[in-house]
């Protein structure tokens, strides 16, 4: 009698179902977290340098760190756009053009030439050197424009982007208001500085002389006492007689001869 051969049950391996969309989103999130960590490190280095004494700070280092942060934030913005596209799906995120449709417009590329940050003229402003200040101001303007364009480029914007006139007007008004405000402050500061510089300072002129034209702030000695001129013009006015002079140090008593 033949024995019946028993067969082992076949183990059924279930296929692993991979949610490709969830995997793509997780990968994008990991990359965003990694770049955000780099941004925090660079901002911490920037703040640490800013907390140093002004003579120990490195402007070049701060500018370099901020430029790197702008670049990294541009990458983060691009990853957020990519994540949004993955959540919507390819068909919704990037709709295919209809047959016979006009080709997509090609945007211009940024044509930026590096502009070095100028230095403010370290000299008093006069009518003779006004040209120097005007030219330096123009270089400052070009430098700020370059920095703004560089920031837009880093943020993945293109020069053909359309801006609403309302926004343009607001930005222009804010810039004009800031310039006007600073101009008024400069006028007030220069006026105050001129008043301070015009104040009289003590200047010793020696023994009083009737023929000398003394000014406010001059000091002289007369008959053993020190006198301060109180007028803008005091010629021929003798100290101690009438207006024009104010006693500063009164003559002391004559000393007695020492006895042997």
TrEMBL record:
It comes from the Bacteria. This is Uncharacterized protein.
